[in-house]
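Write out this protein's structure.
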Amino acid sequence: MVNLVRRCVHHPWRAGGGGSPALAAVAVNAVIAWLIVLAGVVHLSLAFYAHRAGSVLWKLLVGLAYIFFGIYLIAHPALGVASLTLVLALLFLVEGIFDIALFFQMRAIGGSSWILVDGIITLALGLMIYLRWPSNSNWAIGTLVGVSLIISGGTRLILSFAVRRAAADLASLSPGKAA
C-alpha cells in the first residue's frame, strides 16, 4: 500500500499501475484514506484550542472518528473502494443536477450549452455507477473519474474562451473607445 502511494506521488501518470483502473481505484482510496487520517489529526489538534468543554469533547470525538475511519480504509482497501464508489456515484448525480441547473441560470451566455452537456454526461456517469454498484467498484473510480475530469475540464476551457470573447466584445463596444 505504501509503495502504491509512493508511486502515485512520484509518478502520477503511473498511478493506475500501467493503466489498470482497479489499481487506480485502490490508489485513490489510499490517498483519500490518508487525507481523512490527516483531517482527524487536525481535528484533534484544534480541539485543544476550543474554549468550551462541549466543543473540546465534540472535536476530540470527531477527530478520533476521522482517524479510525481513515485507518479502517487503509486496512481494508476493497471495502474502501466500494464505499468510495458509492460516494462518487452520489457526488456525480448531485454535480450533474447542479450543472444542469447552472445552465438554466447562464443560458444567455455564449458557450453555456457546454455546461448542459457536462451536466448530462456527469448525471449519466453517476447513474451508471449507482445502478451497477457494488459490482463495478473495481473499475468505476479509475475509469469514470477520468472521463468526468476530461469532460469537465474541456467544458470549463470552452466556457472560459466564450467568456473571454464576450469580454472582448464588451470592451470594443464601450463608449470610451475611439472608433
